[in-house]
Amino acid sequence: MARRSRRWIVGALILGFAVVIASPAAAGENVKIRFQTWHWGEKPWVNALDAFKDDFNKANPGIEVVRDESRYADKETVYTATSQAKAAADIAHFQHRPIPMFAERGYLLALDPFIEKEGGQKFLAQYDQAALEVCKYKGKIYCLPDFVNPMGMLINMNHYREVGLDPTKPPATWDQLVEYSKKLTTGSRYGIGLIGARQEGLFMRLNPFIWGAGAEFLTADGKRSAMDTPEFLEGFKFYVELFTKHKVVPPGVIEQGAQEVRTQVAHEKVSMNISVPQAWKIVQAINPNMKVTETLTAVPVPAGPKKKVTAAEYGMRVISASTKNPEAAWKVYKYWYGHDIQLRNFQIAAVLSARLDVKNGPAMQNDKFAKVYSAQAPFAKLEPRIPEWPKIGDAVITAVQEAFSGQKTPEQALKDAHASANRTLSGQ
Amino acid sequence: MKSTTLSSEQRERRVDAVVSYSLLALCAAFAIFPFVFMLSTSFKSEAEALSLPVRLIPKQFTLQAYSEMWTLKPFALYFWNSMVVSGVTAVLSTVVGALAGYGFSRFQFRGRTSLLAFFLATQMISGVLVIGPYFQILAALDLYNTLTGLIIAYVTICLPFAAWMSKGYFDSIPKELDEAGLVDGASRLQIFFRIICPVAVPGTVSTLLFAFLLAWQDLLWALCLVSIDEKRTVTLAVAFLVGEFVIQWPMLTAASLIGSLPTIVLYLFLQRFYVEGLARGAVKG
Amino acid sequence: MRSGHAWHDRHLGYFFVLPATLMLAAVLIFPAFITLKASITPEGGSGWNLTLTHYQKAFRDPVLWQTFKNTVAFVAWSLAGHFVLGLGLALALNQALPGQTFFRLVALIPWTIPDVVAGILFRWVLNPIHGAMNPLIRMILPSFPAEFQWLSSPTLAFPSVIIANVWRGYPLVMVMLLAGLMAIPRELYEAAAVDGAGKLRRFFHITLPGLSTIIIIALALDMVWEFRRFALVVAMTGGGPGTLTEVLSTLVYKTYFQFFTFEYASAMAILMSVVLFILSLPYIILVGRER
């Protein structure tokens, strides 16, 4: 038995290694460009991506766009690890926030030389200028803006009518928001869905209230936290008290992320939701039985006492510094940012393109949802774009969760977050 | 006199059985409960999995998830990758670990305790920090996006544990067995393979299972070391079902359930050797 | 003959541990060195400009201390759960009961679910609106609130994570202890029974001593394992509510990959390793002393 088992083990090892080593290495003359995004696995995006890949590959023999899938939850992690080993994907997809950090660490290829060849400023003028600012870091451009996501609000028109509200007159002030939410909160339904989970989406819902109250996260010079102002407390408290005091938000708010809230909308558990422009399409995919275009409509986020403002985020693609074929990568990159592809992305995935000729074109202007979201763009504001922001933001989320769960009063939670932010900013 | 001893023994055994069965039943319920939920979800459509109210028996029973696993997504390929990686890792780490464990157990060499400490210490640095530099090594050796790279990574994680576990099992085997073999003129290596290993089967089996599972279930390393579909493992593929917009619950639960089958099959196959090993251990020179 | 044998013994011992040692050293020395160097390099800097500020920062960091306390509690409770359940099950399964294989299999299956899936699963099951836990409890206790909060509750979040972790991790301990139990010869028990020793006496005088090495090893390995536990916590709570379920491994991950402060994260990781090493010293010494 022993001898037999030993031979068995050795045989298995040899077989295992043989299989592993014999795995065929991909041969071929084509230059392969790894096009990385997490959307390869998401409906309806995958249709737009597949169409793009097929179109490009057919039109450009010699260069092959290869599907490279990242995971939404850890796209930055994988990119960091692979960039450190100089094996990152040629073209990657991120939201606007990590761009400065990646650029600082040298992971991204500066696009200035390519842009110069395409016509410099004239080329750049095709894109949303506000979004373009986000792509610049220390005097160089590291990306082009892909799509713009100003936040709006989705409301369920049927629910409104049921409780005697008029869906064409959505809440325009905070008081109206509370009043309508309370009316909409019946036995089994809640007025509005909020995010309490530890994710960037939380800020997309919280910030309109902070800024709407006239507050800022940092002082004007960006050196100290400004979270101790009464205005900040007002906005912060408003967000938290929707759950703790007015009870118009479903229980388990701390576990609720963007996905959960959209699912609640899809299954009519909440009547309102602050959301990105594509949300209605996602809701439709979650619940095919809901006639979304007839049931939901998009409205602006209620204006605050001091300001009408909303949050926004941008999507952008980057070319990695470790790419072995920068010329080919630029070709693919430019193709993606061309008019036809951008228009098709909008039609399939409902994203608001940052390309001006698509943004101002008839397709987007006539779309029921896109129209409203697009109109919010002038009011959109971004979080402070400093390297310390992720840590400060983390402390703010902690404060929100502590206030939601009742561990601390909003005042105390905010005080602690303020102290933590100052510690971070002073380099401690 | 004889009759009273028998009945008290019988009584004791019966009490044992009752206590054991109650404990086992409770634990079985505790262990199975999430699986019941997984099973129920895997037979629903995606829309129903997210709908309210939550139902245990699906309103519309469907095998869609189970069939789409193989057709829409190449889970057969993922299974192959996982089995190769986990199998080779398990065998390699168990064998090398057992050798090391035997060395620790039978020999009092200088630096033994320090080496034991070193083995354990290698696992104390957070994986997060090891990944970047580790990755650089693998990329330099062109082992990025290969199963071999994954195997190397997993073997180095399993080895210290395998060595420690093996040492523990070997310690419980009396040295007399070794000495009997020495007297017979066998070399240490022969003693190791022919005498000690067969007796240490329960320990070896648990080490094998542990290494197999560790390699099968790992996410972080697979995530960073593999970026193409062809080399993806089952666990990685399941994690990818968690997207930005939705979590594909039916396929996630179906794939996880099927993914737990290889381990169960492996365990059933290996535990046959328990009995043999026990019998061998009972016959001592 | 004696001294010759001993000399041969020592060298043969090296031979047995050599392959493993080489493999580990080859792959882990470089990353360990990089981490150590990063921990004493100023933020974003390079070269040999060394500094200890990160360690000073770490000692002053209240979040780190809180997380450390959470981690110790997390590890202690998880270990306790694993051992109580693992030992009980191992004892129960070591008997020749009918249905033994079935129960062994059932007891094993939580182990077959990866960390990350278990985390996602428990998070979903415990969700107040969409989860199956509340309706299930209501079937037995109809007066139980319909939308009861588990992971959003400051008191119940941590225990929920512990229970999920115990569910996932007890089979390892059980399998190890079962293998150890099988190695205890049946004759010892039979002899003791003939001598009139009761169940409890047999347990304390035969079972526990026979298992002692395995128990120590299982404790040491599980402790190291649970200190590294990461995917389960992240998937279940993300560290919340607030910082109640934040553990060291998730904090290091956040500091490295989200805050992008590689150097500070390295210092934290080194500190974590040192603490873990000190905690495992007693086990190392005990195990090293055996035989």
Query: What profile does the largest beta sheet of chain A have?
Result: 4 strands, mixed
Low-confidence stretches of chain B: none
Number of helices of chain A: 21
Low-pLDDT sequence parts of chain A: none
**Radius of gyration of chain A, rounded?**
24 Å
Structure described in brief:
The complex is a heterotrimer of chains A (428), B (285) and C (291). Chain A is α/β, with parallel strands linked by helices and 428 residues long.
Q: Could you characterize the architecture of this molecule?
A:
By secondary structure, chain A is of the alpha/beta class. Chain A has helices at residues 2-21, 45-59, 75-84, 99-104, 112-118, 121-124, 129-133, 157-162, 174-184, 201-212, 230-244, 258-266, 279-286, 292-295, 326-336, 339-349, 356-359, 362-365, 368-376, 389-405, 410-425; strands spanning 31-37, 63-69, 91-95, 136-137, 140-141, 143-150, 152-156, 190-193, 270-275, 296-299, 310-319, 380-381. In chain A, 48% of the residues lie in helices and 14% in strands. In chain A, strands 3, 6, 11 and 12 form a four-stranded mixed beta sheet that branches. By secondary structure, chain B is mainly α. The two termini of chain B are 35 Å apart. The model of chain B has no long low-confidence stretch (mean pLDDT 84). With 291 residues, chain C is mostly helical. Chain C has helices at 2-39, 53-60, 62-93, 100-108, 115-125, 133-140, 157-182, 186-194, 199-227, 231-236, 248-257, 262-289. In chain C, helix 3 (62-93) packs antiparallel against helix 9 (199-227) and helix 7 crosses helix 9. Chain C is flat, with a radius of gyration of 24 Å. Classes of the chains: A alpha/beta (428), B mainly alpha (285), C mainly alpha (291).
Please name the defining characteristics of this protein.
heterotrimer; A: 428 residues; alpha/beta; four-stranded mixed sheet; 21 helices; 12 strands; 14% strand; globular; C: 291 residues; mainly alpha; MetI-like fold; flat
